[in-house]
Amino acid sequence: MLSEPGALLAALFLVHFLFDFPLQPGGWIEARYRLHARAPSLWLHALAHGAGAAGCLALAGASGGWIVAAFGAVFGSHLLIDIVKSWLPRESLRAFLGDQLAHWVVLLALWSAFTGIALLPDLENMAIRANVVVIALAYLLVTMPVSIVVALALRPWVAQIRQLESEQDSLEKAGAMIGYLERLLILSFVLAGEYLAIGFVLALKTAFRFRDTDDRRKAEYIMMGTFLSVALTIGIGLAARWLAS
Questions:
Q1: Exposure string over 47-58, b if 16+ CB within 10 A, otherwise e
Q2: What is the pTM of this model?
Q3: Nearest-angstrom CA–CA distance, 182 and 188
Q4: Closest CA to 13 of 52, 68, 69, 44
Q5: pLDDT per residue over 179-223, tens digit each?
Q6: Mind listing the pLDDT tens digit for each residue in 83-94?
């Protein structure tokens, strides 16, 4: 049961990120940008989000009316927001961040209406004890969502970097896996308060990635990606520690 307001809020966000990232097939995203509102997968995606939000409220002990209202609000808003996004440039960082922010606002408004807790200033002063859910959400965030943010932020330089290397320069998807592992390790060290260990991870990566990098543009590209990835991960880790304290 999600009896605590903090646990409900964390669960709503956790369900959102699960359905929006690891549980959303790539084919569904392709169909959305090709068919827009006519894509059946877009409606299924919104239905999943609506059902997930309704399930969270059911676990929080909500009445039938609140459960139906939660389903309708999240399903309808998610469908509308994703339809609007499908007409925007797919490789736009602003479109991605705006899309996520709009979804978060809906979830926060739903949570505030159900719990009766004003978002400001009560949210800042509310004690959140849902440690497991908050930490699980943090680990989820530093994988695929942060990868997307970093990739979109570095997109202006991708074409230049691709001119400097061929497909044989690295293993398929190795870079993405390295990024995942790097951020998971850094997040674990932040949550454990072992900040010095972060330096070890960065030093190890630098030793391997920069050893064979002769081109300055490629080195700068790697540095930008690394610093942005690390900064986002540390920020998420610190926020998770604060919420779980």
A1: bbbbbbbbbbbb
A2: 0.72
A3: 10
A4: 52
A5: 888 888 899 999 888 888 888 887 777 766 655 566 667 777 778
A6: 999 999 888 888
Answer for the pair 114, 61: CB distance below 8 angstroms, yes or no: no
pLDDT tens readout for residues 103-162: 999 999 999 999 887 665 454 444 444 566 778 788 888 888 888 888 888 877 766 666
Query: Under a CB-based contact definition with an 8 Å cutoff, are residues 153 and 93 in contact?
Result: yes
Distance from C-alpha of 66 to C-alpha of 80, rounded to nearest angstrom: 21
How many Cα atoms occupy the beta-carbon half-sphere of 190 within 13 Å? 24
For residues 98 and 61, the answer to whether their CB atoms sit within 8 Å is no
Give the rounded distance of the alpha carbon of 179 from its chain centre: 14
Q: Which residues contact 213 (CB under 8 A, 6 or more apart)?
A: 219, 222
Which one, of 180, 191, 100, 119, lies nearest residue 146 by Cα? 180
What are the two backbone dihedrals, phi and then psi, of residue 57, each rounded to the nearest 5 degrees? Answer: -70, -35
Say which residue the tokens 């920069």 belong to.
210
Tell me 168's DSSP state: G
**How far lies 73's CA from each of 52, 207, 238, in Å?**
12, 50, 31
Name which of 98, 73, 79 is nearest 88 in CA terms.
Answer: 98
Tokens of 32: 């959305």
C-alpha gyration radius of the chain: 20
What the block records as the tokens of 158 is 């991708």
* Distance of alpha carbon 100 from alpha carbon 160, whole angstroms: 29
